[in-house]
Amino acid sequence: MKTNNLVPIFMLTVALSFGSVIGRAEPIPADCQTGGFALGCQAWTFKEFTVLEAIDKTAAAGGKVIELFAGQKFSADKPGVVLDQNASDEVVAELKARLAKDGIRAVNFGVLPIPNNEAEARKIFDFAKKLGLYGVTTESVESIDLIEKLVKEYNICVGFHDHPRRPNDPNYKMWDPNYVLSVVKDRDPRIGSCADVGHWVRSGLTPVDCLKILKGRIISVHMKDLNEKSPNAHDVPFGTGVCNVPGILDELKRQKFAGNISIEYEYNWTNNVVDAAQCVGFVRGYGAK
Fold first, then answer.
1. 194 in a structural domain
2. Does residue 12 form part of some domain?
3. What span, in angstroms and rounded, lies between the C-alpha atoms of 13 and 55?
């Protein structure tokens, strides 16, 4: 009887042990961190160039991770080929080789639609799995049930991204962190927000307050600093604008944020590596204080 009694206790212990990791994606490796965060560039920063050039430029700026986006030209020697979830094994292999050469880790993919069609949505998650990505970024609220199913199956996070408020389109709600929270709060913990802090400022919001609303649900960050608080503001190096980047980093640190920060520098498009490098340097200095 004593031996038999140990069986359910053992099974309960095992169940609790497995339960402690349910709903947690594989962490981004610690060697990807700069200043305490997995920091790099959103490839959109270098959208005027190819994917392979964007990886090189991210490395030149001092980033250690990259967030890819769908539709970017892949390389100069493959005219007509763009990177997306339909990429061939040859393209994926070349992509991995360039990432390894430059010491950059691909961690995220987006912003892209996740269709409410399982076969098509699976292509996105299969692509993410091939690259060992931490997350995928989307605004496809209409696909939330399917997204949750695939998040659980693939153990890949999904962040819902915010673009700026659209005064002429009241149906667009992603700019509002309270709306994003309403979408994700009862879902798997690997589903949350891709917090675009610059777009919050363009929407008349305060990023730190928005992060607090979404506490525990920040999957990734599109980090910007802006020259002014207006819908037409443009990017400036971190710490020189109005977004309160130190306060944002403080709040992310307080929340024990473990996702990726993508520098998305949407200005000075053809010559912004130095600007991106200043952003990396700011976060590095923040971590050293």
1. yes
2. no
3. 45
